[in-house]
Amino acid sequence: KEKLIEVKNLKKYFNVGKGKILKAVDDVSFDIYKGETLGLVGESGCGKSTAGRTIIQLYNATSGQVIYDGEDTQVKKSAVDKKSMKKKMQMIYQDPYSSLNPRMTVLEIIAEGIGNHEVQLKSKEKEARVYDLLESVGLNKKHANRYPHEFSGGQCQRIGIARALAVAPEFIIADEPIAALDVSIQAQIVNLLQELQQKKGLTYLFIAHDLSMVKHISDRIAVMYLGGVVELAGSEDLYDNPLHPYTQALLSAIPIPDPKIERTRERIILKGDVPNPMDPPSGCRFRTRCPKAMQICTEIVPEWQEVSSNHFVACHLYKQ
Ligand code: SF4
Ligand code: MG
Question: Which one is the CATH code of 3-318: 3.40.50.300, 1.10.10.10, 1.10.3730.10, 3.40.190.10?
Answer without folding.
Answer: 3.40.50.300
